[in-house]
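Box 3.1 — From sequence to structure: Protein phosphatase 1 regulatory subunit 21
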Amino acid sequence: MQQQTSEHYKRALRAQNQVLKKAVVDEQANSASLKEQLKQKDQSLRKQEQEMDSLSFRNQQLAKRVELLQEELAASEAKGRKGKSKGDSPSQHGLQTQSVFDEDLQKKIEENERLHIQFYEADEQHRRQEAELRTRLTELEKDSEQHQAVVDGLTTKYMETIERLQSDKARLEIKAQTLEREAKDCRMRTEEWINHLKFSDYNSLNVPPHNRRHQLKARDVAGQALSFIQDLVAALLNFHTYTEQRVHIYPLDSSIEPISPLNQKFSQYLHENAAYVRPLEDSFLQLHQSITEDTVTVLETVVKLKSFADNFSSYTHFLQKILPYQLKSLEEECEAPLCTAALTMKNHELQGDMKRVTSVFEKLQNYINLLALPSVQQDALPQSSTSAVFTQLAAFLHSLHDAIKEMSKHYNQKAALEQELPTVTQKLCTTTECLVGSLSSLTSSTGKIATFFSNNLDFFTSSGYCPKGCTVALNPLQAESMLANKKKAAGYIHALRKPRPQSVPYRDALSNRRILTSSTESREGLTQQVQQSQEKIARLEQEKEHWLLEAQLGKVRLEKENQRIADLEAQLAAALGGSPSSQTAAASTLAQSHEEAETEQKAAGKETTLCTSLVLLLYWLLHVGDEESREQLIKTHYMVRVGELTTQLQISDSKAVHFHSECRALAKRLAIAEKSRETLSEEVKLANQNITRLQDELATTKRSYEDQLSMMSDHLCSMNETLSKQREEIDTLKLGSKLHVPACVHTDARLLGSFRTEHVCDLKVVIFS
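Predicted structure (token representation):
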């Protein structure tokens, strides 16, 4: 129930995580769009400010020109009041004013033409860019459709292949289980016979005494080692856990943006560290529990050491698996934008430290496997090589302590450099401090283990048990005999405290032993005689059945002969009591009966010869009196049967060989298919990532093109507004010039002055509006 609740809680957290990720992505997209809109507004504001500045400057120029014209108009009116003699001057002044307006009009026309050309060029450029973008968009959509079709085809193909391989795998697993059961049965029988032979050849008198002091020392040493192993396991668990947390925080914070796929895989592997670290403590605890006062503790009898060696090998393989991800993660930290040269150097030093630590663990694995080998395979490690293995193991434990100490020092320096960065967060600082603390604990625990192993090296290399007159190590059979003798001795001492029965003299014991040995030999001889008698009885039973069949055959033949003799006697009596013709008929009848009997025997012989079954063969044997022909036929029948059975046996052997080779081929195919499935799964993942990336690029391209189109549209709208304003100004100027020309023809200076004043005022109002 708790497991179901935890699974439900995990699923709810995953769903909430997906919703939060989607919300973060949407907010990022909204933020990017708002930034783009703000940028566009700033650009449009700058353009409007520039246009306002240019218009204000133009208005100032026009205002100065209007003031100049007003001054000239006032001067011309003053001159007109002095006399009408100077009537030609206003006309000259009007011509000058007209030339000024014509010049302004010409400038406006040129500026309008220039703006039309710019508008046409911008429109052409916009259309060309839009066509190019639409073409590229079409090509990208086609590529996306092609990729999707390829991915769908590959997915279908791979699913079919996986289903077929799964069915093959299930069938092969069933066959493999059957073969494993048969092999296990054969192995168990073989081990029983081997143990039986070893015990039969073993001299139980050549057994060393039980060393209780050695057992107590071994128990104490194993207890100390267990406490150190527990500290080491706790430090390793903390180190891997804090490393996983750091991967989720730096260089990218997974709560804000997704981390790289490599760090995701690295985090997944680090999350599984307990499955490799916890068994080290459990297996060593079992090893400590197996060492008691009543056991024999040598390399050949410590079976639990093999379990610890296997778990240590599993953890070493785990370190080898995560080493490339550790190195790549440090390289990503080096590629971060705020990573300094000092941090890069420390990351490179940490890469070298991690490689060194993994290498030392591999060497420790090799030596621990060597120490665990004698408990599985006898005489696998000579006694002379044991001390060298323990010495090398102690040396590499010190090397492990030095490597982890160096890595802890470099991590401390790296943590100090990271705290100086401006973007460092409190969460990163806390995680880094915890990581440094776990490394300190790991350094302390490895140092204690190395010192403990060096101090007890003499105990490890000493031989606590050794048979008399022999330099080889104690084997498990001798250990069992030693424990059995210890139990017997304990029982004997316990029995001494009780009233003892009268003991048997030594000579009587020797004579009893001889009697027992002779009775054992006689028992073996009688057993062989019983087996021979049983075989002889079985052979006699077969002969008895054969002679019973012969007796039945003879009985049937006797009855037939008696019947035939009775018939012949009756016919003979009838013939003797009758005429000579009747005697002749009787003789002919007798001869005919002989011929019929012979014919019946021949017909019966032919019919039974054609029969192949055993029942018809027995029936035919009952009607044949020739012993040699009967034996020949029986021999022929059984030879044929033996040939058929031999053929069937050969066929069965060939089928078995064929099935064995087929199973091996299918197993190889299954392995190859598994590898290809993994490869294809990676390819499918890469294809999905490429599709996602292309879709993101396509969406980004569409968004950028839409933004560009909106900007071009706004620019065109502003250009149209500018052109419309300029057209209005040109129309106003044209209207003013048309009205000014007839005014110059009038000779009345007052009318001309009033018209000019009204025109200039109207022009000023138009400009400032």
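Summary of the box: The CA atoms of residues 309 and 369 lie 6 Å apart.
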